[in-house]
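User: Hello! My lab partner asked me to get a predicted holo structure for this protein. The small molecule is flavin-adenine dinucleotide, SMILES included with the sequence. Please write out the structure tokens.
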Amino acid sequence: MSQQLVWFRNDLRIKDNPALFHACQAEQAVTAIYIATPHQWQKHDDAAVKIDFWRRNLFELQQDLAKLNIQLHFFEEDSYQQIPDLIATIFQQWQINQLYFNQEYQANEQQRDQAVMERCQKIGLSYQHYHDQLLLPPASLRTKAGTPFKVFTPFSKHARRHLLNSFHIYPAPEPCKKTTVDKLKHQCDLREISWPTVSKSLYNFWPAGEQKAIARLAEFFQQPIRSYQNNRNLPAVLGTSRLSPYLASGIISIRQCWQASEQYGEVNTDIHIWQNELLWREFYKHTLIDYPQVSRHKPWKIQTEQIEWRHDGEQLSAWQQGKTGFPLIDAAMRQLLTQGWMHNRLRMIVAMFLTKHLLIDWRLGERWFMQHLIDGDLAANNGGWQWCASTGTDAVPYFRIFNPVTQSQRFDPKGTFIRHYLPELAHLSDKEIHLPNVKNKPENYPEPIVDLKVCRIRALSAFKKLKQNVN
Ligand SMILES: Cc1cc2nc3c(=O)[nH]c(=O)nc-3n(C[C@H](O)[C@H](O)[C@H](O)COP(=O)(O)OP(=O)(O)OC[C@H]3O[C@@H](n4cnc5c(N)ncnc54)[C@H](O)[C@@H]3O)c2cc1C
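Assistant: Hello! Below are the structure tokens for the protein in complex with flavin-adenine dinucleotide.
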């Protein structure tokens, strides 16, 4: 019996999955594969929490596909290099008609897909791939001069105009149920793959399955969206969607999110700001495609390569472990370590503290985030870090340095967030909690590792030394 083959990667869902939808349109049976590549994941610094999230979602996906009479088969390979051979073997042994997959845009994934497509051509296997991860396809957004956008605001205005009359934003229809199921034997069970072990306590924060993601989107539009403008910067409030892990692993699609925002009614300020966040995601993904150096550990502003970053293992470690003596920084870093996630405002504050006050290379922070985030995404993470370090496209000017104490007073005024993650400071007053002094500081809480004023001046001077202005 011949069949269509769907290769699942970063699109672990049934709804609005272009590759799955198109494969199901054909008459033949559909079979699906997932290829785990633990060594490659390690090379990419993918966090254990994220890999475990994939595992949990794959389990759900397998059940959902079975309801459509589609079997999901698992394979494990060390790295991407082995995948063309594997696809060729599957093609020969399973009587495959056509291969379907959704595009991915990072450099290694593009190389992998190129190698697979070349092999398909050699062995006579036809393939179809689909635009999926973006609202608008790569290279579709250009300035009047025909160049990629370098600044977010004109990019977002241009994107909004395109989205008004683009067919790209409509989710794909539901795939139809197949009448026959493949009779192939499973090569490898999901449980046999080398998954990392993580604490199950995270599962409540990040339940698996596309139904859970869809429910989260609906809940967000019931209440939090109404105060998004006011609450999105307050880490103690559940004011944002918390959809990033689901978007990063393709458990929900960007079109489903955009459509939900359009169906909400009039585009008021809350909706507009939320859509802008989706467009920041879009902007960074387009930047990654248009400027490949950013996926090769290079700054977008190449002249910032000359910054003399400091090498201070002790301070780096204090930052990583949440032991800097600045309560909001420490609470944020402990949120990352315990939840595998961090609030956006806090990501900005801790990233700026590392790159400006400690003057430590943004790449070390980017890596630590990637190794711990459940929503780790190369484009968004790199974009966020380079924004904070003033090395990226449309980045914050180097002289606008967030002060972690005033940010704490402003965005966690009662210290609610700090108290939750730093119970050792819970007894301090709302005023004291933002920067304990020698008298009220408990013994088990560190003293501030740096003097903010001195460090600010040091950062300004390091940036000023650059030959060209990096504003
Ligand atoms: C230093 C730094 C590192 C970051 N690393 C990542 C990362 O690895 N993965 C990631 O998904 N986001 C990253 N972000 C962006 C942002 O912090 C998260 O997307 C956001 O906190 C997710 O929370 P939410 O789903 O509740 O967002 P919401 O406020 O509900 O926003 C909706 C969606 O828009 C997208 N989004 C929101 N803000 C941004 C942004 N600034 N840049 C890009 N996309 C955005 C996300 O997909 C998010 O789920 C980073 C930001 C910074 C400053």
